Amino acid sequence: MPFRLNRLILRDHCRIAPLCAVFAGVFLGLFAFSAFVATPALAREDTLQEIEERKAWDEKRKKLREERRKKKGVTKKKSGPPAEKIKIAFLTQEIKIPPALSNLDPVLTDEGVYGARIAIVDNNTTGKFLNQDYILDEVTVPLDGDLTEAFKKLVAGGHRHVVVNLPATDVLALADLAEASEVMIYNISAPDDALRNEQCRANVLHTIPSRAMLADALAQFLVKKKWKEWFLVIGPREGDRLFAAAVKRAADKFGADIEEERVWDFTADIRRTASAEVPVFTQDVDYDVLIVADEPGEFGEYLIWRTWDPRLVAGTQGLVPTAWHRAHERWGAAQMQNRFRREAGRWMTSVDYAAWIAVRSVGEAVTRAKSTDFTKVKEFMLGPEFSLAAYKGIKVTYRPWNGQLRERILLAAPRSLVSVSPQKEFLHPVSEVDTLGYDKPESKCGNPG
Which pLDDT does position 256 carry in this prediction? Predict the structure, then answer.
């Protein structure tokens, strides 16, 4: 009834043509805005529906392309030598899933593999013109399975490039096998700085940032903002202590001060007691930013908005340094985000991105080195001519002295990209990206470079 009355009013006013046009435009604009504001849930459903529609259209376009190829006879086998096969393996092992502290974030059991799958498609896009066929073999070892045996089986099957989603101890164990001497292992998930320094291996490349790179990226931004006094809160786990060590190194490197350092050792359920415990835990400290080291996410989120003084939170929660984030859309990243969501049905993570980088590195090196020979591909990948476009505004390369991927680090809040490091104020004689993590003069890695 209200809408009918509005139509009658509109008709009466529109007897005067100019007034009609103005009135109709205002009315329709207000009606459309009210409908949008009144139905936020519908807008969210439309977004999810669009994802499903894109999937359906992708499948439809794929079928149409196949039909066109058949009509043109493209699918007929061409005379000539068979395509050269380039095998890449994706190796991971099941892990024991800990109890979830929040139902908001899904527990991921497939990190990395979708990034590798998308990269294989990208490699074959170029490979089909060079008579090359890239093949991805996915191996998931059971929780109580033999990881070493699975790796040896891959090598015996002709794999020379193995992408691994494994902890640092397993990466080292595989790299030290006699069978791994002529294999390149791509570490996509272990951020341990020791893997890039005293425990580095010549047959391991790291496409995931180290903890030192993440801490340096955050430190540069905070120092640039002149927030140089930090309160460091450290969780009880080994990863927390390692990230805290990286933060302390970054503070010394860029001129910040750790005003206070405290260990979070509460055993009670923080979800129920945060409002009472966090203010007491954070009082009597004069600081600009609270830096939290809580890699599993057990308590860090509950420090935000609950500190004794009104202060910012950064580190593993709050403002987070990361290789990839769902809010990243610059430099063509929106295209990758959409591709990944259509394929995986979820957001891309840093591990997925690192897997994509690893597989694409093989394809890029093979194409530009004009060879599938393992030694030539490895030398080219670590050489000065290798580079890869990776949605970061600059092409990524590898540091020859420790095998670490050079890349920009995103600084992100939960729903927005805040900044990108290295910050322009921090210069370097070779590459500004080498201000993040261990530079060649600092490196304790024995690899030549």
Answer: 97
